[in-house]
Design brief:
single chain, alpha+beta, Immunoglobulin-like, Lipoprotein
C-alpha cells in the first residue's frame, strides 16, 4: 500500500511538471512595410516551447495566435514576415501575463536566442528577460557573442557586455523615401542619387524599403563596426 501511495505521488509530481500554458501572441496592427505598401504580411512563426523548436505558417490578416508551451522557463517566439524580412520577437517566462505582443525591436535578439535554444536549450530556458531588459532596454546594444558565452558558461550574473554604435556614410542609395522596417529606427530621404547618407547604428541587420521603386535596402553592421549594403527587389506578397 505504501508503495502504491509513493507511486501515485510521483505520478502527480510528474503531471505537475508537465503543465502547459496557452500563450496568446499578438502582432502589431501594421508593420511599417505593410503600411507603406497597403498589403498585409503572412508570417512564419517559430518558437521554443521548452522541449523543442516548433514552426508554423500564419496567414495574411491574422493578428493573434494561441501557442501552447511548457511551463517553467523562458519561452521564445519569432515571427518572420514573408519568411525573410526582419523578425518580430516575443518572450514569455514564469509570472508573465499570458497575453504577449511580438515587437520588431525584440526580433533580432529573439532570433539569436531561438538558434541558441536549438543548440543548448537548458541555459537559455533559465534566462530571465526581465533581468536582461533591466540592464539594457535596447536589446540591439547587447554584444550577442559575449552574451551567449556568458549564458552557456553560467557567468551572466557578472554583467552584460554592450556594443558601441558605429558611424558611417553610404553614398550609393537611389533617390526616394526609404522606410525603416522598425518604428524605433528612423526612416530617411535621399533627394538625389549619390547623396551622402549618415548612419549611426549598433551591430545588426537593418532593412529599408522604397515604395515607388519597390526596392529593399539591407544594411549589415558587424561587431567591429564594418558595414555592407545590398539593394534588391522588394519581395512580392
Amino acid at each position: 500500500m505504501r508503495i502504491i501511495v509513493i507511486v501515485a505521488m510521483l505520478l502527480l509530481s510528474s503531471c505537475s511538471y508537465e503543465h502547459w500554458i496557452d500563450v496568446e501572441l499578438s502582432i502589431p496592427d501594421e508593420h511599417p512595410f505593410e503600411e507603406a505598401f497597403s498589403n498585409e504580411f503572412w508570417f512564419t512563426l517559430s518558437w521554443f516551447n521548452g522541449d523543442e523548436i516548433k514552426q508554423c505558417h500564419i496567414d495574411k490578416g491574422t493578428k493573434s495566435v494561441r501557442v501552447p508551451v511548457r511551463a517553467g522557463g523562458l519561452r521564445i517566439f519569432v515571427f518572420e514576415p514573408l519568411g525573410e524580412i526582419g523578425a518580430l520577437g516575443a518572450f514569455f517566462e514564469p509570472g508573465d501575463d499570458a497575453d504577449v505582443e511580438a515587437l520588431p525591436e525584440y526580433g533580432p535578439f529573439a532570433s539569436m536566442l531561438l538558434r541558441a535554444a536549438e543548440y543548448r536549450s537548458e541555459p537559455v530556458s533559465r534566462l530571465s528577460m526581465k533581468d536582461v531588459l533591466y540592464e539594457s532596454e535596447d536589446l540591439q546594444a547587447i554584444d550577442e557573442t559575449a552574451f551567449l558565452e556568458d549564458v552557456f558558461n553560467g557567468t551572466l550574473s557578472y554583467g552584460i557586455k554592450m556594443n558601441e554604435k558605429s558611424r558611417f556614410i553610404l553614398s550609393s542609395i537611389p533617390e526616394g523615401y526609404w522606410i525603416s522596417e522598425r518604428f524605433d529606427i528612423p526612416s530617411f530621404t535621399v533627394f538625389s542619387s549619390g547623396e551622402n547618407i549618415g548612419f549611426y547604428l549598433y551591430p545588426g541587420v537593418y532593412r529599408y524599403a522604397e515604395r515607388d521603386r519597390k526596392l529593399l535596402l539591407t544594411v549589415i553592421v558587424d561587431e567591429d563596426g564594418e558595414y555592407s549594403q545590398m539593394i534588391t527587389a522588394m519581395p512580392v506578397w
